[in-house]
Input
Amino acid sequence: MNALFRLSTIITAVLLCYVPPVLGQSPEWEPSASDFGGVGLFQTRTARFWRDGQADVAFSRVFPYDRYNLSLQALPWLEATFRYTSILNRSFDGGSSVFSGSSFKDRAFDAKALLLRETRFRPQIAVGFQDVLGTGLFAGEYIVASKRWFDFDVSAGLGWGYLAGTSEIRNPLISLSDGFKSRVNTASQGGQPTVGAWFSGANIGIFGGVEYQTPIKGLALKVEYDPNNYSREPINNNLPSTSQFNFGFNYRPFPWIEISTSRERGELWMVRVSLRANFNDKGIPKIDPAPPELKPRKAILAGLASTGGGPVVLPRKSQHNDANSDLNAVFADFTRQGLVLDSVSFEGGFLDINFQSNNDISGLSADDMGSLLARFVEHSFPDAQHIAVSFTGGPGAQTSRPLDQGVGVVRSVAPVSAPVSQPRSRPLPTHEIATRIFEELDEEGLAAEGFELREGEAILHFSPTKYRQTARSVGRAARVVANNVPPDIELITLVLSAAGMELSRITILRHDLEMAVSQSGSPEEVWVRAQVLPPAIDEESSNIIHNGTRFPAFDYSVGPRLRQHIGSRDGFMLYQLFLAFSGRVELAPGLSISGSVGADVTNNFNRLTVDPPASQVPRVRSFIREYLQQGQNNLIRLQTDYMFSPAPDLYARLSAGYFEDMFGGFGGEVLFRPFGSRFAGGIDLNYVRQRDFDQRFTFRDYSVATGHVNLYYDLPFKDILAQANIGRFLAGDIGAKFQFSRVFAGGVRVGAWATLTDMPFAVFGEGSFDKGFFVVIPFDLLSVRSTTRSGTFAFRPLTKDGGQLLGIVPRLYDVTAGGNLDNVSKDWDRLLD
Output
């Protein structure tokens, strides 16, 4: 009778789910997390999801379980959770005798996917997998539905495996196949997805509950029906339970923290605390210096006229003229007519103007030409009393053109002998102009490589070294160029470089930039007429002026770092806090020396006493205890790299030195990355030796040749990168590492990998194969100043020897990413920042 009452309660809740929502529900409502991590009530899940990019790091305790959860809304429809569980009343080897620091540790991975979104009459439905890649102690699957009604969110679901609990309801899937009758965990080593056991078992459980958003901001009350059978918990844990209803509250006083407590099993109180962040948020507002003020061309023309028409050194600052946008329109009209302003001189009321024309201007009427000139003179030289105009270049240029406006002498010049399609040679810009651009670019935190002035076009070669957003570097560099070149230059080309290699060329119209800065246009309008072209490495110009102060270039940093070893028998988290002194010197284009030294601040690695079991393969990573304890003050990395581009779309790297804390040697990499393509591929080969445990300058006896074919594909949605490294790993095993990662709008990259090789699961040991996840956090999310630096947190549940990749940086794919077409366009709205 009691079971029937519970069942009727759940069915009533499901029926209430179908009552359509009404107006007046709280717009700030946001679901909360469960004890296990991920969105849910307490012990059970709901069909709700967080906002895309939401991350939640939590700790919950309800004896005997301490749970450490890391949950992420990886995609709008996919939630992922990694969980460490410490079972306090069981020893590390599963026995009932426990001594300090050695309770049983269980690792698990959960996933939940959206099946149907909520509509007016339909609930939201999701399917989930608990402990899908762990030991399987708490493994279970579920289908759950949720429906919102006023400020009540009602959920109900069906559970298999651990989530079936005490229920005696027969698994309906058995009618499809007898294979669903029994549930067997076939992953003897753990770490394998036991697909054959999914949705199997003799019975299924029913669970559900309600979350009520109170009028108090951030406070929610929750109650649930929990079907778990606590008398048969994993590792022979018989836990007391007097009620299957859990109730409590969740409080979110600030967006970044959540506190929850509940009465569970009718016996104990649970408490949970979580820290929250959204990886799509832009981070701390910046106090970077404002971009340089864009000088109006009128001021530039005045400076040019005072020198008789040649290149000039311009003043660093000028006042913005409201009429400048009209003058920009005049220059745009000149360009449309095929006219380029070649020289201007003004003295004693006499104005002499010369145009270079590469088109047939014989069809240009005197009225139209007169109107253009009148507007030009009115804005730039209103005191002119006599005007002389000449044309040099294309057909029709030798024809005299009378002026309707003003009094002056109109003369003609014979066309040049060179073909019209070839630009007329012009004097090289003075070194003062190039030097000025190099100096101003350096003040902007951008590294100038060289400068070139062609007919109607200014070309700047530079490396964006300060801003993560390529468009910010492009916008500031374009302003510096526009402020220093003659006013007739309409095309500004920014050549993006990295490690001495040209990556791409971005050409924008100066007029469009001026309009955008004056708020008469926009970055989007600049983009419409911009050109983003592949590198032109076979078009080296003899006119380029190189930046003589560019090399050698020094860069260094000092900051705290954290090394951790999680999940050991000797303690849940063993760590070292140390200072890293890092430096890099660029000796020439593509040639650099970089390194990093660590100085210990504090650590508890002395607690690490247990050696790993004997290995049947070379111990390339499992000497972790020796490296951690003997290398507390260490040479982390010291290497020389030479990078170059031997052909279009082809990049190469040669490296030698101490690549990482465990291996050093020499090797190289080649990458084929077609410009604008989502695909890239390459190969790397390295010969390395194992470093001594103290991580100084000596080596151990073990050496290996390792290399991989590296494939990359940038998926056309959500900025997801798929990557495969196929080849020979450090222990000599052969196989492939598969990795997926996503870059969120805030710049955080989150990814996961799995490596499968010819090493049998039994030889690999616990965990079956190498896997883990990583988070790359840009430092400027946490700083008021922009920087391109970032920190990486990588985690693997177990440190084993199979499937281990050499940790060498930099990789060519990362080096060349800044000039990729997608990267250029992605943050183009930041062009004016």
User: Anything to note?
Assistant: Residues 76 and 602 are 40 Å apart (CA to CA). Residues 1-27, 302-324, 395-429 have pLDDT under 50 and may be disordered. The chain is about 15% helix and 40% strand. The two ends are 69 Å apart (CA to CA).
